[in-house]
Write a structure and sequence with these properties.
globular, 411 residues, seven-stranded mixed β-sheet, binds fe (ii) ion, 21% strand, alpha/beta, eight-stranded parallel β-sheet
Length: 411
């Protein structure tokens, strides 16, 4: 199959892509069709490596208002609403909702998802459902599962054992939630436990770290120090880190040295944290987004995630990472020309590093033919026009497509 006339990752000139047996066989400025080869002229559209959802809670997706709405809009009321919904969880209920969301993601150009799955459930129902789906859907969606202790490791009955059980069932990543633990001591010991569990079973780590406006929430320094000491930095991710928004600059300067030394990854969730944080403030209200611009400038790896899709924490969400990037650029004040043009990396290349996708990811000869085509010539245009994803191709096979709409002004 030959795809002609594509701008690869904002290149100034177009290229042609030849796909054979699910692999990028050739990529060059001009390729002649082979006898009998299928050939499509893409007309000068943008090709990117597939988008990556680096942080979402699929087990809770599409449950907003069921059984109760989060009236205050706070993270903590969200956790209470979810605790009520958890009582009704069945495997079939999780499967139906997740399958729908996987299709929403596919039409938006996503091929890889890291989902946190709540394991503070004695039956581990959602974990079982997600593990089944990870296998069943692997040809269309790569799903990475985090054992996520929503109600704490040390502060939930049998919390440690549930984490161990989830890892033994097949979770890919070990989670933690230090800011939700009852005490500072529990916060530290939960992080030590998570890191040791990951080291023992050779798993990645992704911690809901300091997702709170409390400037005294200091889980991040503990996580980064352990990652540094255990030489596990590239396997470790600190998600949210919204308290860093409220840290004083002198502390951040000291902390940043450790963050760089540790080599840990960061995931920020601009839609959801703009909505959830600052809820207890009068005016001025904090945005509560972590220091993305400063982390990137220091050389840290940062990606953006959706976090929630129509669930107790966020009553919106549609599986479009374009909206996530759009919001992130605004609230992080990253509106320079190059920052906008290259912002797709926050949901592609940078996220691939966080998920440890390795050498298989990217547009290059010899790699799996995984790519997307957007109805624009570069990502700047794609972002401001909300360009549809025309094609989503995984392993050489189309997993989603769209036809541009016919909206037009009549003057
Ligand atoms: Fe989250």
């Amino acid at each position: 199959m030959l795809y002609q006339n594509l701008y690869l990752e904002n290149a100034k000139e177009t290229s042609d892509i030849r796909v054979e047996n699910g692999i990028f066989k050739e990529i060059a400025s001009h390729l002649e069709p082979l006898p009998g080869e299928d050939c499509v002229d893409m007309g000068g559209k943008l090709a990117l490596p597939p988008f990556i959802e680096s942080h979402v809670h699929l087990d809770a997706c599409l449950t907003a208002g069921d059984p109760v709405w989060n009236m205050s809009g706070t993270l903590f009321e969200g956790i209470e609403c979810w605790a009520k919904r958890k009582d009704k969880l069945t495997k079939e209920d999780v499967r139906q909702r997740v399958e729908k969301v996987l299709r929403m993601y596919a039409v938006n150009g996503i091929q890889h998802i890291r989902t946190h799955v709540d394991v503070t459930d004695p039956k581990l129902t959602a974990m079982e459902a997600l593990i089944e789906l990870r296998e069943e859907k692997k040809d269309v969606m790569d799903i990475q599962i985090v054992a996520f202790p929503q109600e704490g490791i040390e502060s939930y009955p049998n919390g440690r054992q549930l984490m161990i059980d989830a890892v033994k069932m097949g979770a890919d990543v070990v989670g933690a939630i230090p800011h939700f633990e009852f005490t500072r001591e529990y916060s530290v010991s939960s992080l030590n436990f998570a890191m040791e569990l990951a080291a023992k079973y050779d798993k990645l780590v992704d911690v809901h770290c300091d997702e709170i406006d409390d400037e005294a929430s200091r889980g991040l320094e503990t996580l980064a120090a352990r990652a540094y000491e255990m030489n596990m930095g590239e396997k470790v991710t600190a998600s949210h880190t919204t308290a860093m928004h409220s840290y004083n600059n002198a502390y951040v300067q000291r902390l940043m040295r450790l963050l760089v030394m540790s080599g840990i990854n960061f995931v920020s969730n601009p839609l959801v944290n703009t909505h959830l944080q600052g809820r207890l403030d009068n005016y001025p209200k904090r945005r509560g987004i972590t220091r993305v611009k400063e982390l990137l400038a220091a050389g840290c790896n940062v990606s953006f995630g959706h976090d929630d899709i129509f669930d107790p924490w966020y009553p919106m969400g549609n599986g479009s990472l374009r909206d996530v990037v759009f919001m992130g650029l605004h609230v992080c004040q990253m509106m320079g020309y190059e920052e906008i043009l290259n912002s797709y990396k926050l949901i592609s290349t940078n996220a691939a590093r966080t998920l440890h996708l390795g050498e298989a990811y990217g547009l290059a000869e010899g790699k799996p033919a995984d790519f997307i085509v957007l109805d624009a010539k570069d990502y700047y245009e794609a972002l401001i026009t909300d360009a549809p994803v025309l094609l989503n191709v995984k392993g050489g096979k189309k997993i989603a497509e769209s036809v541009p709409g016919t909206k037009k002004a009549l003057f």
